[in-house]
Design a protein that fits this description.
Length: 528
């Protein structure tokens, strides 16, 4: 099967993207953070009746925008300032916004500092609102959150942070359990707290801005839509981190550098999941609630983002209007479709067909309805992602060998696709024929001798062969694919109810495209 099956490969690729995540460990939780104490900020009073920002909080926000903290002490001082302002007047919108921004920055700073790499660099007003509103929430991102990022590779370590992290060779190395514990204890509480505070501001905002201040000669006015956009951005970060801690990521002593074909223990050309994937507990569910929360956060991000774009005012000083977003109707359409896809089962249209590379013609073209239930990824998280991994067949597709032909050394190039085989022997001739299992029937047309019929039988690992052109001297190159031939669960744990999608994938179409509203997802695109 030559089709590039993106949805399935994304699951197999989970193993590959985790190659840089440190090995096993005793699961010890991280020590108390050496960074900023966020206890008082987390416990600061929430707004019950948000009111317009006062002079003190507006001045503090202006300082935040113009002189963003660059050291741990500066960030700690800013956080403490906003805690004091919120304690004095919990309903002051400016105090609440400043507190939640500083709290998120402090929580993420503590986590990234402990882990040895930065999760992000700053959280100013413009960056928080713009991250969502500039159109970064696309169909690809939404579906990626659903299928492609159950587990995501951690970022690279920062040159300015401690030399600790999951990158191999760090001292002392962190286990995957420690990484997850740091995220759970240091980053996620701050993010969740910030979202609650933002929701209160967004829901209370009326036709007039709750906050208005001047920074860098620009006036910023924040309406409900602006709080929605900031909340959407923070929720997207939560989605990523909640999914990162939901599954066990410890691969044990798995050898990531070993070639797949060498993991074929019995040499039968078929890799079972037990042969090619790390052992349990790798990718087993450790926190169902984290997945449930991730689904809610993603739907919340899309809903808040849609509200932000729909409810912009005509005020040129509004934060969102200063981002020069232009016409956002396409983004709004994406979000409307995304919210439906994330909330309930829907029916995608699948367009398929076969492309003949020799003739350049299409055949077997058509469309079909494919039920898709993306919400099930979070509402019914799979207990072990490896249960979705398919067996893999090692398919040879090319090689270059030194051969002994009539007592003369020649270099032979083999190329095998599906049932066809080709051969080119330097200085001697060309051949073509058929391929069945490991046997190739080739008719050679040498330039200096009559045509000769060869039958070559290759070993299971494609490192040697026997037959008419026997006497292989040395393997110089070989090529192979690890192909998917079957699916242990044709519904993908309920993602594709009824298995219609896997039935289409099994047909090995050159073209297989899923469409729903503004969403277009290529599953197979083996054509020009």
């Amino acid at each position: 099967m030559r089709t590039r099956i993106l949805l399935t490969v994304s699951l197999v690729a989970v193993c590959l993207v985790l190659a840089s995540c440190g090995g096993g460990g005793d699961g010890a939780a991280p020590p108390p953070p050496e960074g900023i104490d966020t206890t008082q900020a987390l416990n600061a009073p929430q707004a019950t009746d948000p009111q317009p920002a006062g002079t003190a909080s507006q001045n503090a926000l202006e300082e935040w925008e113009t002189q963003y903290p660059t050291t741990e002490q500066e960030l700690a001082d800013d956080l403490q300032q906003f805690v004091a302002l919120c304690t004095a007047d919990p309903d002051d919108s400016g105090s609440q916004l400043g507190l939640l921004l500083a709290l998120v920055a402090a929580g993420m700073y503590n986590a990234s500092d402990y882990l040895g790499y930065d999760l992000f660099n700053e959280l100013s007003l413009s960056s928080a609102a713009g991250a969502f509103a500039r159109g970064t929430v696309t169909p690809e991102l939404v579906m990626g959150q659903g299928v492609g990022t159950l587990v995501t590779r951690p970022g690279q370590d920062s040159a300015t942070s401690r030399s600790r992290g999951v990158i191999p060779g760090t001292d002392p190395p962190l286990t995957t359990e420690q990484v997850q514990a740091a995220i759970e204890q240091l980053a996620l509480p701050a993010l969740a707290n910030a979202v609650v505070r933002l929701d209160a501001l967004a829901d209370a905002a009326g036709p007039d801005p709750l906050i208005s201040f001047t920074a860098n000669s620009d006036t910023y006015s924040l309406y409900g839509a602006d709080f929605d956009a900031i909340a959407a951005s923070i929720q997207l970060v939560r989605v990523f981190l909640l999914q990162l801690v939901a599954y066990n990521l410890n691969p044990g002593d798995y050898d990531w550098d070993e070639e797949l074909r060498l993991k074929d223990a019995n040499g039968n050309g078929i890799l079972t999941v037990a042969e090619y994937a790390p052992r349990d507990p790798f990718l087993t569910l450790r926190s169902r609630q984290s997945m449930v929360n991730a689904g809610a956060a993603l739907r919340g991000a899309v809903s808040r983002g849609r509200s932000a774009l729909q409810n912009r005012t005509s005020d040129p000083d509004q934060l969102l209007n200063q981002l020069e977003l232009g016409d956002t109707s396409e983004i709004e359409g994406n979000l409307q479709d995304a919210l439906l896809i994330l909330s309930e089962p829907v029916s995608f249209e699948a367009e398929y067909g076969r492309y003949n590379w020799s003739t350049g013609m299409w055949s077997d073209e058509g469309t079909a309805n494919v039920p898709v239930n993306v919400a099930s990824i979070w509402s019914n998280p799979i207990s072990d992602v490896k249960n979705l991994f398919p067996p893999l067949t090692i398919e040879f597709h090319g090689g270059r060998y030194t051969m002994n032909i009539n007592s003369t050394q020649h270099t032979a190039w083999f190329d095998v696709w599906d049932s066809e085989a080709w051969m080119d022997v330097s200085g001697w001739g060309y051949g073509s024929g058929t391929m069945s299992d490991h046997q190739a029937d080739l008719t050679m047309n040498p330039s200096s001798a009559p045509a000769e019929q060869w039958t070559l039988t290759f070993s299971n690992d494609w490192t040697s062969f026997t037959g008419t052109a026997s006497g292989t001297a040395e393997e110089l190159y070989y090529g192979y694919d690890a192909e998917i031939t079957d699916f242990p669960d044709n519904t993908f744990n309920g993602l594709f109810p009824g298995g219609a999608m896997t039935d289409l994938i099994a047909q090995d179409y050159s073209k297989l495209i899923l469409r729903y509203g503004s969403f277009e997802i290529p599953v197979a695109d083996d054509y020009p």
